[in-house]
Structures are given as C-alpha cells and as structure tokens.
Amino acid sequence: xxxxxxxxxxxxxxxxxxxxxxxxxQAMLAFADEIGASTAFSRADTLGPCNIGAVGMxxxxxxxxxxxxxxxxxxxICGATIDTIQARNFIxxxxxxxxxxxxxxxxxxxxxxxxxxxxxxxYTIRDVPKLRVVASHYGINVRDRSPEEIAGxxxxxxxxxxxxxxxxxxxxxxxxxxxRKRWEELGVTPRGIDRExxxxxxxxxxxxxxxxxxxxxxxxxxxxxxxxxxSMIATDISDILFGTPxxxxxxxxxxVLKDDMVNVVVHGHEPTLSEMIVAASRDPDIVExxxxxxxxxxxxxxxxxxxxxxxxxxxxxxxxxxxxxxLAILTGAIEAMVVDVQCIMQALVALAEGFHTKIITTSPxxxxxxxxxxxxxxxxxxxxxxxxxxLAIDNYRERGATHIPDYRNTLTPGFSHEYIxxxxxxxxxxxxxxxxxxxxxxxxxxxxAIVGCTNPRIQHDSMHTAITSSLLQQDVLVVETGCxxxxxxxxxxxxxxAGLDKVGPGLREVCETVGIPPVLHMGSCVxxxxxxxxxxxxxxxxxxxxxxxxxxxxxxxxxxxxxxALSIATYCVASGAYVIMGGSNPVEGRQDKVPESxxxxxxxxxxxxxxxxxxxxxxxxxxxxxxxxxxxxxxxxATLGLxxxxxxxxxxxxxxxxxxxxxxPLQERRSALYGANS
Length: 678
Hints:
This protein is α/β, with parallel strands linked by helices. It is built from 26 helices and 16 strands. Strand 11, helix 18 (462-473) and strand 12 form a beta-alpha-beta unit. The termini are far apart.
C-alpha cells in the first residue's frame, strides 16, 4: 500500500491564539510572524507528522528497511510483525528516557562523592538531616560520623546501582512491601540500572526478542530501574546537596525578564550548574562588574526543568516551560542562554543569530554547532560560573530593542514529600494521616499527578490548564512537576488562596485549614519519584489500601513529547498507577487497515492492568481525560468502601466560612451555627 493511501493530517498556519493559550507566548508568536522568525510552532505547522511512523507502523532498526507495514498481514523484510515492531520501538524510547534521567542521577552521585572528598569547589551538604535519613534507609552507619563520611558511603552505594549485574537495586526497598512482592513474582525487579537499559537495546537488535509481550515485560523492568533507581537517586542527592525544597514565593512567565538588567537564562536539567550560577550571580565583584557595564545588576531566570530546580530552592523566577525557550530569545533581552542537557532545541543557535543572545553549552555530552562551549566541571564550579556570567555581562552592551511581554504570575513552589509530611502535622506529629482522612471522608475526592512536557502539535498549555482547572472544581487535589507545573503557575493556580474560588468545597476546606494551594509544585520531571514516595507513605499510613494501585490516584501527561515521559509513564504503571497520556499514541496502529496493530496498545492497557494494577492509555481529548480520571478515582473509592463523593457535604468550614459568619448580625450568626432555636 502506498504511503498516500493513509491520509496525512494537514492544517494551515495557526494564529498565535490557536498555538497557545498563554498571552505571553501569543505576544511573542505574533512578533515572530512579524519578523519572519521560525519557531517550533511554525515548524510543527509546516512539517506534518509521519502518518505511518507516528502510530508505530514503521521499523528502521536495520539496513534492510525502513519497513512500513500498512496493510493486513504485512511484515517487515525479516518477517517482523507490526506488534513486534511497535513493542521494539516503545521499549527503545523507554530505554532512552531511562538513560537520560538515570545518567543525570549518576552525575549527581559523582558530585556527591567529590563533595565528600572535599574536591568540589563551592558545594556543601546543605541538608544533613536528609542525608542521615536516606543513608539509614540503606543501613549506612550514621552515628558519630561526619556528614562527609556518610555522604562518601552513600555516593559509593549509589554509584554501585548503575554497574551492578545481579541482585536487586537498593532503592527498590523503599516501595510498598506488597508492590515489591508483585515485582518479584512477575520477574521485573531491576538488577542494575545500566544492565536493564543495555539489555533493552540488545533485545531489540535485529534477530533478537520477537515476542511483543516479552519485550514489553522488559520495558517495565527498564523503567523501574529509572523510577525506583536513577531518578530517585537524582532527587535524593539534589536535596542533600542543594536543600530539600520547602514553599517559597516565585514568579513565572516571560515578564520576569528585566529591561535594565543583564538577563541570563539557564535551561536544561542539571542543578549542579544552575546552583553555582545562582551563587556566582550574588558575588559582589560580579554584581559590580554588571553595574560597570551599565546594567542595574544580574537577573537570572530558568527555562524547563532547570527553572523548577532553582525556583523551588532559590526562588529564581521561571521564564517559561519547554516551548518558550525560543520565545525568550525573541524578546531581545537575553544576554546569554546557558544550557546543559535534555530538551534543548538546536534551533536556538540559528534564532539567536538574529539577536545578540549567546547560546552557551556546558555539558561534555552536549554540543550544538555554532554555540559557545564552556565545559562545566564541578571541581572548578565557582570559577567557571563566574566566567559564564562575565561573558553575558560583556554582551549586555550589544543589546538592541527589546520586546518583553508584560505577563507573569506568582506561585508557591517547593512541596517536597518531606514538607507535605511536615505541613500536615508539624515537626513532632508529621504524618500523612490528615491527607488520608480527607480522602476517606470525601473532602478530597482523590489525587491527580499532572506532569510532563509541552508539545507544539497541541495548543500550548491548553490541556494542562483545562484538565487541572476541571479536576480542582471536582475536589481532586493536584500535584505537578516539570513543564506542567510551570504551565499552571502562569495561570495563577499555584498560589495560596488566590484561586480557591475555583476549587471544590471539600478541597477548599483542606487548603484553607492547612494553608496550601490546591496545586502542589513538587519539582522537576526527575522529581516524579517524589510522587511515588508520597503514594507509598499514603499506603503505609493506612486506610487507603495496602498498595499503590488501591489509592484513588491517577497520573496524567497531557502534552507529552519526550522519551523520558514514556519511561516515567511506564514506571508509574508498574508501580500501580493508571496513567493517561495526551496527544498521539506511538503504538496506535491502524485497526481499519491492520487489525493486529492494536495488540500492543491493548496489552499496555488491559494486560498491564491485570499484572500490575496500573495501565497506560493515550487520549487526545481533554474532556475525555477528565471523564476517565473521575471515573477511575470514584471506582477506587468504591472498591475501598469509602463514601460516595458528595460535594454538598462540605464547604461550611474554613477561613472563608468564618469571614462569612463574622459579617452576619449576632442573631443570624447564632442561627447559622446552632440552629434556628438558638
């Protein structure tokens, strides 16, 4: 069958309003159109997706292909069926995503070791209590030992997780007991992080594993090596070195850029670099250097998950999420965009040539042709960070006209699982009991984790904001990480009681009582492991079942685009979560043309649900995602024997109710409180 027999989706050039719901992004897209600049949005309109590869019907894993399977009964040249091809493509994406996040964890383990040995310039152990708690998880002796001694042993243990060949990853021991037993029975407990990733690639080489279910079985094991291995290691070490996040005040969107200051944007995922740039930007000599150049100082801002890292620990504003990296350069106000790893568009360099912005790559793993490369080394971190800032300051004199859209919003980031535990009970009574009780009573209907990227084939931020807003109205507590968190921060959903008028009555009571926003910012995309930890603590607290798959909770990635998102989704499914991905389904196939092409999608839904109590589905409509979410949460409540959700039972307590009562005349107030006969 010829490729043209399957129609390719076509659309014209979208208006800025059609491309994004964010007014700052709309303003910059209009400016891009005005000057004829290319962006990911315009390229997405021009370059349609491959209508065969997008649904998993193409194999390019050897030189005999690519093989496009577009009709019933067709196979690749080697005889591979479409379900085998789909499973191979999927596991390769999971392996790449797991490699990206886990390699991030490896680098942080090397940094922790260097700090322990006194070889990392400018770094200290900022959270000694967490260091001691984490080390104790693994049986490392913490009594009568210095933080550096403990950190050295922990770094060695973590580095061993990458290269070990047999046994069980140590962090797996932090999962619920029942969940660990299920993994053991199903034979998916990961042995070593690198081993599982390498085996995923080996299995998918031409002529190897050809049973789709068997291939997907190892996809589970590979993803678990990420979620309960490399990513968990990365989060632990980031907290130990840079501080465990706690709520503070921040700002988000392109309006955080300053017309009278040297603007330096850090973009990527490595806190080792961004934390040092934050520290160097506060050095009096660097500040004076900026003033001598005619600026009022240095203004740092973040893009993507680096934004989340320094936002939740340092209060540094977020200029935007993934799709705003080009739009930030279009403002003409950025002296330097400093990038490290992951989610960095090669198009930045060509776009920056039309402005004065310098693109500076810093990782030994990432170079972009035409960019300035200043390799970062934690052993000389402070000096390198100052060199980068001086280069940016020197570039300030080259700035031309600026077009900074005046849009920004405040938010409260920094809800680590440790802080959630503290905020629910204080220093001496810290517990998840109040959260569990609120769910059991029905004040909180359930919990939704909304995470993931933004995708130019989906109206920017639209799915994140629509789904979040609807779930809040239905008393679903929302936790968020990554670009999803920045999306909703820009719309004022992550700040105190500012949006409680848009929240259901039961959830509003909880937020007012505890003093939290209805959407909890939990960090960068690697910090999805915090969500696993929260779910584990909820299980251990009791009342919501004895495994993660029994909790009224769900994971959603409405605008996903990266292989990391597929790894995250898979390890969450393996942990017992129902996960819904927005946008396109990479294993959808075409049932009308190739009936067997949906076998892999069915296995990832019903098959995984039977084995793990979690499932992975792809849904491209926001209303349908909301409907499936609510139905799932209510079904879990019913299975646990919890009261049916009834919003009319709540809303008569909390700060707002007290203010309402205080405004009443005395007799009416008594009647409202005690009845008409009072």
